[in-house]
């Protein structure tokens, strides 16, 4: 058998260092995640702090940032790490993405030197957990109309409002909270021990069950001005953080798709029906060929974006193109692989249905497919169709 990504010898696109990083992350996923993740998913829990410390030891948290204990790795290396983590589980990759590309990146990019020194070294080691509070109960895809407010009270700020579907929130030590002020949207690094801050674990999820997700309530949270992210001005600041995190999803979704396709190939070559392996039927081979093709196309897209990110940076619409295509195709691959496994496809013994369920959330969070279509449409036509 040929592994799906070996058809076009895509491994040759990587440097020796990039392959080494990939192998290290793959080993930690094999050792620390795969033996347990089916149980975590079934129970709806995940050992966030234990995993964060393990990932911190390998330099995976904020690995693409520089200074403050961060590894300063390339965008492609970070993408490969996301791919290997999500091959184990999307929720585990989300832990790393939210920690590094949202919470840490926001402080690293927009915070003061004091804020960076206070939070980033501990977040890089996994001793401190961060979350990113932008999405609200009534304002998901439309953060410009967020209801959370921050008002001046003397030298302090007082925050009131709520955030929903916030990864890592129940375990977080610091929450990057975005709020409307008289001066526009402003970010705050909020210690979660601050009076008036509370985070409730969201239960009964059918997707991303091996991920800690919470609802944040801000009830008169009083902060000094030293909590304000002074370089964050307007809605472009949190949206730039989302662009940073979406890049990891471009790669991560491929990991989930690859794991499903590997599982389907192994199953189809060993399972016999009507006197021959499932893989010996033309319809099965057609499914496998089409899925392998889409997986490789997605990998080439991710690689192009990664190399461009390292060379000159990426524009938001380029990241939107990557997330739109790769998550959409990864979900289609997971669903198709489920059909090859038949009834066994819904069993927790195999990772396929878990990945398919997770990818339903990945399709939605950090910009729905429709939002990314509108981003591309606006770039193509010059017309803003949001809300139209």
The first-level CATH class name of the largest domain: Mainly Alpha
Estimated helix fraction: 40-55%
Number of helices: 11
Task: Specify Rg, calculated over alpha carbons.
Answer: 21 Å
What number of domains?
3
Structural class: alpha+beta
The separation of the N and C termini measures 50 Å
Q: What is the average per-residue confidence, as pLDDT, rounded to a whole number?
A: 96
- State the fourth-level CATH superfamily of the largest domain: Butyryl-CoA Dehydrogenase, subunit A, domain 3
Uncertain segments of ≥5 residues (pLDDT<50)? none
C-alpha geometry: globular
Pfam family, one: Acyl-CoA_dh_M
Organism: Mangrovihabitans endophyticus
Domain Acyl-CoA dehydrogenase/oxidase C-terminal: 233-379
Domain Acyl-CoA dehydrogenase/oxidase N-terminal: 15-127
Describe the structure.
There is one protein chain. The protein has helices at residues 16-33, 37-43, 48-57, 75-88, 90-110, 113-125, 236-270, 282-311, 316-341, 352-364, 369-381, and strands at residues 66-67, 70-71, 130-133, 149-153, 156-167, 174-181, 184-191, 197-201, 213-224, 272-273, 276-277. Helix 5 (90-110) packs antiparallel against helix 6 and helix 9 (316-341) packs across helix 11. It has eleven helices and eleven strands. It is α+β, with helices and mostly antiparallel strands and 388 residues long. It folds into three domains: 4-125, Orthogonal Bundle (Butyryl-Coa Dehydrogenase, subunit A, domain 1), CATH 1.10.540.10; 130-227, Beta Barrel (Butyryl-CoA Dehydrogenase, subunit A, domain 2); 236-381, Butyryl-CoA Dehydrogenase, subunit A, domain 3. The N and C termini lie far apart (50 Å). It is globular and about 80 Å long. The chain has a four-stranded antiparallel sheet, covered by helices on one side. The protein has a three-stranded mixed sheet with strand order 3-6-7. 52% of the residues lie in helices and 16% in strands.
């Amino acid at each position: 058998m040929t592994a799906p990504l070996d058809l076009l010898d895509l491994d040759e696109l990587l440097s020796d260092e990039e392959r080494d990083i990939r192998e290290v992350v793959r080993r930690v996923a094999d050792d620390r995640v795969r033996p347990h993740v089916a149980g975590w998913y079934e129970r709806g829990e995940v050992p966030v702090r234990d995993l964060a410390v393990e990932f911190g030891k390998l330099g995976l948290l904020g690995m693409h940032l520089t200074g403050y204990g961060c590894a300063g790795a390339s965008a492609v290396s970070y993408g490969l790490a996301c791919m290997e983590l999500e091959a184990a589980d999307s929720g585990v990759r989300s832990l790393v993405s939210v920690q590094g590309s949202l919470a840490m990146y926001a402080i690293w990019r927009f915070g003061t030197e004091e804020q960076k020194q206070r939070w980033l070294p501990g977040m890089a080691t996994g001793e401190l957990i961060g979350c990113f509070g932008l999405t609200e109960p009534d304002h998901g895809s439309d953060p410009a109309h967020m209801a959370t407010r921050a008002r001046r009270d003397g030298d302090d700020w007082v925050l009131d409002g709520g955030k929903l579907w916030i990864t890592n929130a129940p375990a977080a030590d610091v929450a990057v909270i975005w709020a409307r002020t008289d001066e526009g949207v402003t970010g705050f690094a909020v210690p979660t021990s601050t009076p008036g801050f509370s985070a409730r674990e969201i239960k009964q999820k059918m997707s991303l069950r091996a991920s800690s997700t919470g609802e944040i309530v801000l009830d008169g949270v009083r902060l000094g001005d030293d909590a304000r992210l002074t370089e964050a001005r307007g809605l472009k600041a949190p949206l730039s953080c989302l662009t940073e995190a979406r890049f990891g999803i471009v790669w991560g979704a491929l990991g989930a798709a690859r794991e499903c396709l590997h599982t389907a190939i192994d199953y189809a070559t060993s399972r016999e029906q009507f006197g021959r392996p499932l893989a010996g039927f033309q319809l099965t081979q057609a499914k496998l060929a089409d899925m392998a093709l889409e997986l490789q196309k997605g990998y080439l897209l991710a690689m192009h974006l990664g190399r461009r990110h390292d060379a000159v940076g990426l524009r938001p619409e380029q990241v939107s193109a990557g997330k739109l295509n790769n998550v959409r195709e990864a979900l289609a691959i997971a669903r198709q692989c489920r059909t090859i496994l038949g009834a066994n496809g819904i069993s927790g013994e195999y990772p396929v249905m878990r990945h398919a369920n997770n990818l339903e959330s990945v399709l939605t969070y950090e910009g729905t497919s429709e939002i990314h279509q509108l981003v591309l449409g606006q770039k193509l036509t010059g017309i803003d169709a949001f809300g139209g």
